[in-house]
Amino acid sequence: xxxxxxxxxxxxxxxxxxxxxxxxxxxxxxxxxxxxxxxxxxxxxxxxxxxxxxxxxxxxxxxxxxxxxxxxxxxxxxxxxxxxxxxxxxxxxxxxxxxxxxxxxxxxxxxxxxxxxxxxxxxxxxxxxxxxxxxxxxxxxxxxxxxxxxxxxxxxxxxxxxxxxxxxxxxxxxxxxxxxxxxxxxxxxxxxxxxxxxxxxxxxxxxxxxxxxxxxxxxxxxxxxxxxxxxxxxxxxxxxxxxxxxxxxxxxxxx
Length: 255
Known about the structure:
By secondary structure, the chain is an alpha/beta fold. It has eleven helices and nine strands. 38% of the residues are buried.
């Protein structure tokens, strides 16, 4: 069942659809969107169970891709370039593989079309621990979550999801129950279709999400793909070096 997603549109030029990663929202891509808005009309999307978009009982990549296509239909976008980071990158890849005529170029931020094991296990454990206690302040929630998260930047990012709900009580803005239940789907690899259009994979130099052994699978599904490494960055490369990431995206899309 399709979910009507929350979106923001900014800038002028050809369309660029931008998809965030797990636990994120379209706002997380605002840094590079601001840099690109003079050259592209960016569509920042909150995927289902994230941000201001509705919650839903499942979140397979085919479902998330169809949600985004529905947004494109709503905005009368026949085809567009698509940028996706992490989970959003897998959603973007699914879009290109399932309806290649609607994706003109694809940029994937630090994720490969392969299954991943346990990357978020500790974080999910911490988010669940906070939910079980139900603290009614941001400071209390952060104190519970902190032992589960090594990097301060990741902790701060996760805490943007601890919000006061409509009933006045504090809770996670993401649909944690569904994310926990569907995590095997979120960590899954891509199917065996092929997208022949131009694809740029951006990997963080200090990240282990795109590895040498993933090259064969990348080229099986995306034979025209190239991989570029962003030095001095980890998995959150767009937040760590937005200028460099934005320049890399712009150069690729304008080729």
